[in-house]
């Protein structure tokens, strides 16, 4: 059974940094592409970032490119999202999700990131 | 700036059939966009219903089906049930390493 668990959320000031992690189990993490998706309070879903199974390709939504970095440690079955230069509008629940045929077939429960002064 | 469009809200009576749509502000939706659909209830993570336009995810009831209707992707619920009341999001892969979600449809069953 696929299990994805996010951690590392919390409160940060504008301009600050946070690092999210996602522990994966129940599937071959090394063979699967992964994503981060976020959802602002009361709003819809927004895809944030993608990383290929081997870590070579990384793609980002325009609003976070240059500020966020997606990475993975296949030896530890862990996906990460380093978030720098945080803005108020980055406040959201962040989900890690497993890629399946250009869709997201398994999701974590999400972790709240609040950017506030 | 390409935007994925969905009906903001829809209402259906129990047992009736409803079709939600997913379009693009620029161009038509095709199978090359790998349309997928998600159901989300408040406080929960999204659940994948449909991938690759019309493939049903494991465990999803067969009353949920996906298709391309005209220039849009579509999610049809045949015989809506009370526990289908939820938010539904479509997602498209628009190429160049970009995935876009629609704004979501809030479905009420009453």
Supply the key terms:
heterodimer, A: 117 residues, 54% strand, globular, B: 110 residues, mainly beta, seven-stranded mixed sheet, four-stranded antiparallel sheet, 11 strands, 0% helix, 52% strand
Q: DSSP strand (E) fraction of chain A?
A: over 45%
**What is the count of β-strands of chain B?**
11
Rounded to an integer, what's the Rg of chain B over CA atoms?
A: 13 Å
**Order of helix and strand elements from N to C terminus of chain B:** EEEEEEEEEEE
Instruction: Calculate the mean pLDDT score of chain B and round it.
Output: 97
What structural class do helix, strand and pairing data of chain A support?
A: mainly beta
| Portion in beta strands of chain B | over 45%
Category by helix and strand content of chain B: mainly beta
Strand and helix layout:
The complex is a heterodimer of chains A (117) and B (110).
Chain A: E1 3-7, E2 10-12, E3 18-25, E4 34-39, E5 45-51, E6 58-60, E7 68-73, E8 78-83, E9 92-100, E10 103-107, E11 111-115
Parallel strand pairs in A: 2-11
Antiparallel strand pairs in A: 1-3, 3-8, 4-5, 4-9, 5-6, 7-8, 9-10, 9-11
Chain B: E1 4-6, E2 9-12, E3 18-24, E4 36-40, E5 47-51, E6 55-56, E7 64-69, E8 72-77, E9 86-95, E10 98-101, E11 105-109
Parallel strand pairs in B: 2-11
Antiparallel strand pairs in B: 1-3, 3-8, 4-5, 4-9, 5-6, 7-8, 9-10, 9-11
Structural overview:
The complex is a heterodimer of chains A (117) and B (110). Chain A has 117 residues and is mainly beta. Chain A has strands spanning 3-7, 10-12, 18-25, 34-39, 45-51, 58-60, 68-73, 78-83, 92-100, 103-107, 111-115. In chain A, strands 2, 4, 5, 6, 9, 10 and 11 form a 7-stranded mixed sheet that branches. In chain A, strands 1-3-8-7 form a 4-stranded antiparallel sheet, with no helix packed on it. Chain A is globular, with a radius of gyration of 13 Å. The mean pLDDT of chain A is 97. Chain B is mainly β and 110 residues long. In chain B, strands 2, 4, 5, 6, 9, 10 and 11 form a 7-stranded mixed sheet that branches. The A-B interface holds A 35, 37, 44-47, 50, 57, 59, 61, 95, 100-110 and B 34, 36, 38, 40, 45-48, 51-52, 55, 57, 89, 91, 93, 97-104.
